[in-house]
Here is the input.
Amino acid sequence: MPQTAKKNEWGHFVREQLEGVQGRVHDLQKDAEKVFGEIAARGRESRKELDRLVAKIEKAGWAEKPAEIADKAKLLGAEIADQIDELQGKAIRMVGVASRGQVDALAKEISRLGAKIESLAKDVRKKAKVGQA
Here is the structure.
């Protein structure tokens, strides 16, 4: 009988352990279902947000080919650069500061006038030498 009692004890022990494991598996299953439900809900929300963004992009006309968008961006950038240059020129004129082009033109004119003065000075020196001799 002692062996039968030991078998019963072991059977009872194994049954308790098995029931405990089954309970933990059941709890894990509930947790997994809850997490899966949350992930699915997030996925649905993300999908809705993506659909809204796609609708905005299509409405704005940005659903064109990327190359076309890049070309439009380059043209817009060139227009903006031209407008900035124009505004900068207006600001310089209002302040009274010469632009680079104006400074270059003035430098050329000064060089030309300097050469003319030097030429006239040589003529005056020649005449002065002739008058002394």
